[in-house]
Design brief:
single chain; alpha/beta; Rossmann fold; 2 domains; 9 helices; binds adenosine monophosphate; binds magnesium ion
Length: 306
């Protein structure tokens, strides 16, 4: 498979078609955020419920602030982590540039400046905001390679950009900055500790801000997933973590490195699933730093409420 150039992708976006977009987190299925027909195609292609709002990807902080209303803390977060894997939910300023359907009718909007150079090239050539949820069909693991992305929703795109394997491998951290309160809505690769170093203690999503679309069963392969497993049962594949746990080819990280485990997580879940195992067992992952995001995705893959 060979990909299209950012310029060809930008042309496809301008004519209302979908684009396979590489980002540093996972591959996205992208559309012009201001075009309701194009955005509707994303919901159809993914089978995504329409109450689940999309993230608008923009070129820089200035662009973000033309769409959303940032207070000082939102601005401090943008300055600290953009371009990069942090999404900020803030009151919507411009309801046209990110249409109602993309926001699921909310008065807030989620914005992010991605770090991947090819994502940035597409957005720059397009010149507007691009909504880009993960390119998987709804509920399945996010694709972190070009081939996995094309297998999931490639049939729906007018252009596809190959950006290589995603360096981060889990979705962006989502924080809301509303009414002066900063809350963590979804853990991701920017860790709680890193965010708290900039804006102080975070509120939990239960305390005030809700995040629609955080479904209990999500990111799930076909095989049942069993977490916190010390050993594999008969017929299960064990995804190990740390030295000497399970087979090397199925290790999330042989040295117990959380960044490496995040980068490998969805790819290994998919590869394990392809062997049609009785189940997929996953070793315990420490619940610190990036481990919070990994455990969040694993709990949802296993069908637990997060
Ligand atoms: P994704 O599924 O990766 O496209 O990420 C989108 C997620 O961001 C949604 O499932 C929501 O949890 C969150 N989100 C997006 N927009 C908003 C919003 N306006 N308010 C709260 N959460 C949002
Ligand atoms: Mg997703």
């Amino acid at each position: 498979m060979t990909g299209d150039t950012p310029e060809i992708a930008a042309e496809a976006l301008k004519t209302g078609r979908l684009v396979m977009l590489p980002t540093e987190t996972v591959y996205g299925l992208a559309a012009d955020a201001s075009n309701p027909q194009a955005v509707a195609r994303i919901f159809e292609a993914k089978g995504r419920p329409r109450f689940n709002p999309l993230i608008a990807h923009v070129a820089n902080g200035l662009d973000a602030e033309s769409i959303a209303v940032f207070d000082e803390r939102a601005r401090a977060l943008a300055e600290a982590f953009w371009p990069g894997p942090l999404t900020i939910v803030a009151p919507v300023r411009d309801r046209e540039r990110v249409c109602d359907l993309a926001r699921a009718g909310l008065d807030s909007v989620a914005v992010r400046v991605p770090g991947h150079p090819r994502a940035r090239a597409v957005i720059a050539a397009f010149g507007g905001a691009v909504v880009a949820p993960s390119a998987n069909r709804s509920g399945r693991p996010s694709p972190t390679t070009f081939d996995d992305a094309m297998e999931e929703t490639g049939q729906f795109v007018g252009a596809a950009v190959d950006g290589g394997p995603c360096a981060v491998g889990v979705e962006s951290t989502v924080v809301s900055v509303l009414d002066g309160v900063v809350a963590l809505l979804r853990p991701g690769s920017v860790t709680r500790e890193e965010i708290e170093a900039v804006v102080g203690p975070l509120a939990e999503s239960g305390q005030g801000h809700r995040s629609p679309g955080r479904l209990a069963l999500h990111y799930a392969p076909d095989a049942p997933v069993r977490i916190e497993a010390e050993t594999a049962n008969e017929g299960e594949v064990l995804l190990g973590f740390g030295p000497g746990v399970g087979e090397a080819r199925w290790s999330l990280s042989p040295n117990g490195d959380l960044r490496e485990a995040a980068a490998n997580l969805f790819r290994l879940l998919r590869e394990a699933d392809r062997t049609r195992p009785v189940g997929i067992a996953v070793s315990p992952i420490p619940h610190k730093g990036l481990g919070e995001a990994i455990n969040d995705r694993l709990r949802r893959a296993a069908g637990f409420v997060g």
